């Protein structure tokens, strides 16, 4: 499967996500794509397909891990993904992430509660399968 089909499958889950653009970060041969958005931004059919309630007061984190092969192509890989979200008032939420595999894509989804307006600081710890080290990502998302 081409990387474009994998990224399309991942992006389809997120559409429409408006201003909450998908982010990515590279760690050697790995490329990690992630995003946090309000579930009200999900298309109704996408939310239904994944059993996610569309709500102004609920959010969703998505993470996908890709590995660059020797020929330069990217391939989805399984990983152990841990995530937390902290509000500016120090309320900590540990997200339970579920792995989704479909059409050759592998990604992780976790839901969280929102109290708007709110800014969340996310911390991700990702250890790709077979990789001895883990990768850490921190990012912030504001919800109005």
Automatic annotation (TrEMBL):
One matching Pfam family: DUF4426
Residues annotated as signal peptide: 1-21
InterPro entries on file: DUF4426
Top-level taxon of origin: Bacteria
Keyword list, A-Z: Signal
Domain DUF4426 intervals: 25-143
Name of the protein this chain belongs to: DUF4426 domain-containing protein
């Amino acid at each position: 499967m081409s990387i474009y089909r994998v990224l399309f499958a991942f992006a389809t889950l997120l559409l429409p996500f408006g201003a909450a653009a998908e982010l990515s970060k590279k760690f050697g041969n790995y490329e990690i794509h992630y995003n946090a958005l309000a579930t009200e931004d999900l298309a109704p059919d996408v939310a239904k397909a994944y059993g996610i309630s569309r709500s102004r007061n609920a959010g969703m984190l998505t993470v996908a891990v890709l590995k660059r092969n020797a020929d330069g192509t990217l391939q989805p890989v399984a990983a152990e993904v841990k995530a937390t979200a902290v509000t500016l008032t120090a309320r900590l939420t540990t997200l339970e992430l579920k792995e989704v595999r479909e059409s050759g894509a592998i990604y992780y989804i976790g839901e969280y509660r929102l109290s708007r307006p709110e800014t969340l600081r996310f911390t991700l710890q990702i250890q790709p399968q077979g990789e001895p080290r883990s990768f850490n990502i921190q990012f912030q998302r504001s919800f109005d």
